[in-house]
From TrEMBL:
It comes from Anoxynatronum sibiricum. It is a multi-pass membrane protein. The chain crosses the membrane at residues 12-31, 43-65, 86-114, 142-164, 176-200, 212-236, 248-270, 290-318, 339-362, 382-400, 421-443. The keyword Glycosyltransferase does not apply. Keywords: Membrane, Transmembrane, Transmembrane helix, Transport. This is Sodium-dependent transporter. It is found in: Membrane. Signal peptide: none annotated. The keyword Transmembrane helix applies. Its main location: membrane.
Length: 447
């Protein structure tokens, strides 16, 4: 189709970039506090079912649409039907909204690398107050967010193979090794068993409609689905690659890291008698507190942990920025650098508003919540689920079945009738399941 289009440099490069997009703050910052706030094991079980039935199928569908059309989200929808352009645009809007709060947390992670090394851990009792003081400060977090966004702009401006792929290839394996190191330390602490029980012994007594919606939103968010990101990444993928295999690897890696983050955090948290439902500050307060009790080596562990968190955030936020940049490049014929600089500029502004909403601008609310929470809740609970449902309806009912079979099988066949199973899941099961979960969740919240 588009002969001069950029391509991933290698298979490994693609997997690392796609896994880099999926593995992010969603896994390490958000997954533990969502699991903690929703009762642990039961939430995790529901999450896993959603990931492997809905998430995996949607990811294959996004890859298929992207590669078939060689176009990013908006172009891909438009290619099949002008009436569906809105679904692609919704994805670009979602990317903007997620980038409204994501770089703020990315900036915190970066700041905590330096804070860990410069005395944060020496006064364990004050760690919670330091976090509260830091995120509500009108200047300091803005500076860190600025640095974080600058890193994004530099990587995305270099283009696909040059920037994003190279960064992913080095940074993702580093992250895996770091997390395993911390998880091993955590489970070997005395009293760690209670944390493992919290994670793995299902207790359904606290499950409500909201638990399901939270788990579904988390699944879409963590796998980077429902907003065209994987369509965009798939559009750069070579025709020889097998889509289902790639999707399975990315999904497994993403889930593995989330569980690993849980294993890194909860056993230690219980070992030290802390509260699992600590909320968004969980990682930033609990992890340093845990490490503070370990002496000098703890300082090193904490710094390493926040390097890993920053790295994970960066490989995800570049994919979000790429969705917006690719839209401007494909649809508005903008030159890459110009597209990236203007995108970055707007993101600085939304990021500033979002960061300040936790401090001096906390009085300013949209629909009853601050700017940061507004971006977060709107994307995670609403936009991504709608985006995922639209994609499933689009693929099931608009795209030709033969085209899909051709993409999924690379012109051959899949064993065990797997293609038909996938097709029916996408066409019938996902639209209905997402609608049911959304209705139940919203009714529950409204109660
Ligand atoms: N998956 C990323 C994470 O878990 C966030 C993300 C969402 C990235 C949507 C791209 C698209 O942090």
């Amino acid at each position: 189709m588009n002969q001069s289009r950029e391509n991933w440099g290698s298979r490994m490069g693609f997997i690392m970039a796609a896994a880099g997009s999926a593995v992010g703050l969603g896994n390490i910052w958000r997954f533990p506090y969502m699991a903690g706030a929703n009762g642990g094991s039961a939430f995790i079980l529901i999450y896993l079912v959603f990931v492997f039935i809905i998430g995996l199928s949607v990811m294959i569908a996004e890859f298929a649409v992207g590669r078939r059309t060689s176009l990013a989200a908006v172009g891909a929808y438009k290619h099949y039907s002008k009436r569906w352009t809105f679904a692609g645009v919704l994805g670009v809007v979602s990317a903007f909204f997620i980038m409204g709060f994501y770089p703020v947390v990315g900036g915190w992670a970066l700041a905590y690398v330096f804070k860990s090394l410069t005395g944060l851990l020496s006064n364990a009792g004050a760690i919670g107050d330091v976090f509260g003081g830091f995120i509500t400060n009108p200047i300091e977090p803005l500076a860190w967010m600025g640095v974080f966004l600058l890193m994004n702009v530099v990587i995305v401006a270099k283009g696909i193979a040059g920037g994003i792929e190279k960064a992913g290839k080095v940074l993702m394996p580093t992250l895996f090794v770091l997390l395993i190191l911390i998880a091993v330390r955590s489970v070997t602490l005395p009293g760690a068993g209670a944390g493992l029980a919290f994670l793995f012994q299902p207790d359904f007594s606290e499950v409500t409609g909201q638990t399901f919606l939270a788990a579904l939103g988390q699944a879409f968010f963590s796998l980077s689905l429902g907003m065209g990101c994987m369509i965009t990444y798939g559009s750069y993928l070579s025709k020889e690659e097998k889509l289902p295999n790639n999707a399975l690897i990315v999904t497994a890696l993403d889930t593995g890291v989330a569980l690993l983050a849980g294993i890194a955090i909860f056993p230690a948290l219980f070992a030290f008698g802390m509260e699992p439902a600590a909320g968004p500050g969980l990682v930033f307060v609990v992890v340093p507190s845990i490490f503070a009790q370990m002496g000098g080596i703890g300082t090193l562990f904490a710094a390493i942990f926040f390097v890993a968190l920053t790295v994970a955030a960066l490989t995800s936020s570049v994919s979000l920025m790429e969705v917006v940049a690719a839209y401007l490049i494909d649809q508005k014929q903008m030159e890459r650098k110009k597209a990236v600089y203007s995108t970055g500029f707007i993101m600085v502004i939304t990021g500033i508003l979002s960061s300040l909403s936790l401090g001096i601008m906390s009085g300013f609310t949209i629909l009853g919540v601050g700017v940061f929470d507004f971006f977060d809740i709107l994307t995670d609970k609403i936009f991504l689920a709608i985006g995922g449902m639209l994609l499933a309806i689009f693929v099931g009912w608009v795209v030709k079945k033969e085209d899909l079979e051709d993409e999924l099988t690379n012109g051959g066949t899949l064993t065990f009738g797997l293609f038909n199973i996938w097709y029916n899941v996408v066409k019938y099961v996902i639209p209905v399941a997402v609608a049911v979960v959304a209705v139940l969740g919203i009714m529950d919240i409204a109660q």
